[in-house]
Amino acid sequence: MSTGPGLFSDIGKKAKDLLTKDYISDQKLSISSSSFTGLALTSTAVNKGGLSTGDVAAQYKYKNTLIDVKVDTESSISTTLTLTEIVPSTKTIVSLKFPNYNSGKVEVQYFHQHATLTTAVALKQSPAIDLSVTLGTPTFSLGAEAGYETTSGALTKYNAGISVTKPESCASVILGDKGDTINASYVHHLDQLKRSSAVAEITRRFSTNENTVTVGGAYAVDALTVLKMRLNNHGRLGTLLQHELIPKSVLTISSEFDTKALEKTPRFGVALTLKP
């Protein structure tokens, strides 16, 4: 793949990951194993509000082919086939779910030195079609995406975004929800390894005149431990502690408080991921 501007979905992703990734409110246990043949198995159990669910996932990689299969407690089977470089500079992703056949989708990603193009088509009689285009370089990118419903002949979405990425920072602006929201974010890395970072995000919804301002960040206490925190202007405070117990095995503890209503019960989550 060429080193170009990245996908449209990459715009603003660094800020979103810092503010949302790994924050949980459930109890989760994930155990993985792998073999030298390229087969990896993962078993996950989740306890959410007293209701236990789980799934088993298998992943097999051979040369430029990656197969993911997941079976959940409701006997739904999700399969994803990823093929790289069938045509030079492309990635093809086919996803199917049984017994819900109408949820299938085929996505083709094309990467160029100064552009990326993504087309996704649902596998049903009257498919929905998604298209995104990003132009630029790894430093500066400008992109747009749209969704079209062939049954109604209507646009289901249209968004646009711009991103500026430097070694020590990343800034982005996204106009989304058919022009109803605008989101601006900025990430500043505090060390060369980018394990400690500060982030700020502002979202404006025009239809309701509502603004949401969120600040947060991550701090690497040591080589094995990371602290994360986020706080928005509505008083929602989230904290997270992530510690690598042994190589590749991570314990995550997170919580969320409403600082404007401390009498409410805070939400806590614990996740343990064990890998060989």
TrEMBL record:
Q: Please provide the record's keywords in A-Z order.
A: Ion transport, Membrane, Porin, Transmembrane, Transmembrane beta strand, Transport
Q: Record keywords: Membrane included?
A: yes
Instruction: Name the chain's protein.
Output: Voltage-dependent anion-selective channel protein
Against PANTHER family, the record matches this protein to: MITOCHONDRIAL OUTER MEMBRANE PROTEIN PORIN 5-RELATED, VOLTAGE-DEPENDENT ANION-SELECTIVE CHANNEL
Report the function annotation for this chain. Forms a channel through the cell membrane that allows diffusion of small hydrophilic molecules. The channel adopts an open conformation at low or zero membrane potential and a closed conformation at potentials above 30-40 mV. The open state has a weak anion selectivity whereas the closed state is cation-selective.
Task: Write out the annotated subcellular location.
Answer: Membrane
- BP GO annotations: monoatomic ion transport
This entry carries the following GO cellular component terms, namely: mitochondrion; pore complex
InterPro entries the UniProt entry points to: Porin_dom_sf (IPR023614), Porin_Euk (IPR001925), Porin_Euk/Tom40 (IPR027246)
- Of which family is this protein a member? Belongs to the eukaryotic mitochondrial porin (TC 1.B.8.1) family.
Q: Which organism is it from?
A: Cinchona calisaya
What does the record give under GO molecular function? Answer: porin activity
Main subcellular location? membrane
